[in-house]
Amino acid sequence: MEVIKTEIEGVVIIEPRIFKDARGYFFESFSQREFEEKVGHVEFVQDNESMSSYGVMRGLHFQRPPYTQAKLVRCVRGRVLDVAVDIRKGSPTYGKHVAVELTEDNHRQFFIPKGFAHGFAVLSETAVFQYKCDEFYHPEADGGISILDGSLGIDWQIPTEHAILSEKDTKHPLLKDFESPFVYSK
Predict the structure, then answer these.
(1) What is the mean pLDDT of residues 71-76?
(2) Considering the entire predicted model, what is its pTM?
(3) Alpha carbon of 34 to those of 6, 14, 30, 47, 114: distances in Å?
(4) Which of 64, 105, 122, 150 has the most crowded Cβ, counting Cβ within 10 A?
């Protein structure tokens, strides 16, 4: 696998080695050993999958301490724009984001460390999205910031009038009204 660094330290794009032939393709979607060598030590404990249709936007989500989550995400069918926003108080990149297109064809994965809000927008007719988490889901620790916060400067590639949001996701605060539970440490 190749690890591509982004503008925000710790947030990386992973490109697997794909082996193609007349039968199709094969790739190792996750190796704990290689992940630790190239990205760092993370013990994933839960895998999730969602299916969504064009225009669905999920996020920007995180879990509050002590149940913070790092995530390794990928799109196994369709196409999504995936985004991580730095919400660590004191971080030199606080409020900045990294966006990457994840598709069934590019097989890219995106690693989002703890201290980031995460979301995605479905750009294809449907998309199947998978993510590994290093902490179990704790509904009492759910948090989020508004996925439509214009101050974040995210181009979701979907006209706002076509965005499909859950009721919960329409109620998250803007970044300027948000008190982050995360603190940056070098």
Answers:
(1) 98
(2) 0.94
(3) 19, 11, 8, 19, 20
(4) 122
